[in-house]
Design a protein that fits this description.
mainly alpha, 4 helices, Arc Repressor Mutant, subunit A, 0% strand, 69% helix
């Protein structure tokens, strides 16, 4: 039976701690990766991202950014309005059906 390879997700705090350990403990990235049960390539990538982005590193799952949060709020308001209109139409259909 084959096992499905699922990608592990690590929190921002976990990644930052892994990077800190890889720099401060005097151990190699490979040793730290083995200790934390992560791929060495992932640890190298995390180190690279921390070096490049500093405090803005690992913002989250990428679903919500300042650029699209306004659009998301607008879509939520529109969705609520459409639900309200739908409910009004349902009630009026029931009312008129009773008249017949």
């Amino acid at each position: 039976m084959e096992q499905k390879n699922e990608r592990k997700r690590h929190t921002r705090e976990f990644k930052l701690e892994a990077v800190r350990r890889s720099y401060e403990t005097g151990k190699t990235a490979a040793e730290v990766a083995r200790e934390l049960d992560v791929r060495e390539n992932d640890l190298h990538q995390w180190r690279k991202e921390v070096d490049e982005k500093g405090d803005n590193v690992f913002p989250g799952a990428g679903r919500r950014t300042p650029g699209n949060s306004n659009e998301l709020e607008q879509l939520r308001r529109e969705n609520a309005q459409l639900r309200e209109e739908r409910d009004i139409l349902k009630k009026s259909a029931i009312y008129f059906a009773k008249e017949l």
